[in-house]
Amino acid sequence: MELIDQHTKKIMEGCKERALNAGLRFQDETLEYIVTNRDLLELSPKLMIPTLYDYWVHDVEVLKEKGRYELYPSNPYETVINTRPAISFYNDNNPDWLNVLIFYHVLAHIDFFQNNLYFRHTWDYDFTGQALSDKRMIAKLRSEKGRWVDYVIEFTRGIDNLAGYHDELSRLNRPPVTNLSKRLDFYFDVFLQSIKKVKIHDYIKEIERYNDCVKKDVERGERSFFSDVRRKYPEFDAIFKKSLQEKPKHEIDLIQYLMEHSDFLKKDENEWMKPVMQVVRKTSVFFQPQIRTKIMNEGWASYWHEKLFLQDERIKGHEVDFARTHAGVASLPRVGLNPYALGMHLFYYIEEIANKGKYSIEFRRLLDAYKRDKFDAGTGQGQNFIFKVRENLSDFLFVNTFVDQDFITRNKLFVAGRRLNKAKMVWEFYVKSRKAEDYRKMLLDTLYHPPHIEVEPEKGKNKTLYLVHRFEEKPLVKEFIANTMMGIEYLWGGPVQLETSEVASVTGSSTPTKEEKKEPEIKWQRVLYTMENRKLSKRNISSV
Fold first, then answer.
1. 27, 154, 269, 310: least CB-packed within 10 angstroms?
2. pLDDT one-digit tens code per residue, 345-364
3. Residue 195 belongs to what H/E stretch?
């Protein structure tokens, strides 16, 4: 692995200048490395972070990838990681015109990393430097504790998808402290919403009433407002004073709960396990936004590499080469999902719609298909709009907000179904639906969605750790339950119980024929798993 030469670096600096002029924003310092296929195979299991801690599964992945490469040799065009400075890796045989294309793609990724709010917790430090420190700490512990370090890593990695990523974001993205009083915050944020549970129109009326009071008298407006509140809710003052005495709740995930409350980990001889668990949790939280913004991130990079590449005079004579390469990246498949293509086409669609002013009440009120198609308010705000989308959304919000019927119709998208042809005894694929809601559901079902599992201390008896899976019609993978609970039992130092839901019965065929169109009906059963002394048992609780 070595830095790119000065000739290639000059190409990159030229791409940076053009990208910044186009509106992208990123730190100027970047590092670009030329890597061999062997380097890529060894870095991939470590998520391309060279300084990530060593772990035996990484070695297994390297061997697996070597075998796969021998059967299906292929080279990625680039890989970029979200560090300070940003680091990217390239093949050593790319021609200059291809480097121009790839560099634009990489710079758009860096812009996304450094401006999308779902990456906010990664902006203030260099992860590679922190990872190197963690690697050295784990290596030292491994020399002292041996294989027990790998057990702790493995048990913690079994639950690292439950790390409190959104709690971390909420802490960092919390609005700045305002001049509004705590009493006002409590009234609108807690009292009306959680205690009184008022209707939305009543809540809005209270906001309007407060604004009117302040407009009439800036200094005494709040006092006047709360004098009316006391008449309407005499109990408000007592509830507010009680809330001031209560300690604010600190939401913690399962890994943090184990580190704070496990009697086993509190023992002097086991204290060393906590920093190892913290490293695994921190690594998981760092990489969470990448998997939650895959469609947006790749779509944004594809959008900009096309737009900037076609305007670059350095690519003259290679337009056909670009078209061939770009088509392989950005073509929408008839069956399946290509995040590069879907994201890119969505950004182009959003830009066009925003330019025409179609994200307006006036347009949404139109019912005539012809008028909707010809509507054009000429706002010219498309580019600004997609920059705001890039900054504020994740894949879930991106898909749920912008994949509408017009987008589906324009790109001739559909949900494909599969059925058994009993006459020929073959599977057939068919157009199941062309509705936007069905296509959105298909996309949302493919997104990363870890289970929501909480600790409920009041249900645990005799020092049992009681976990509750908040069921969202996505059951846990049964084959992982035993090993995962065994790891939790070891870290907890006592019995562990897990309340979850599983399929009780299925009505209808799961392999429909041509004549069968009705989806099977699933009945769910609430069950309780118990892991004690490394033995797993299960019993039914109730039907869902």
1. 269
2. 999 999 999 998 888 888 88
3. none
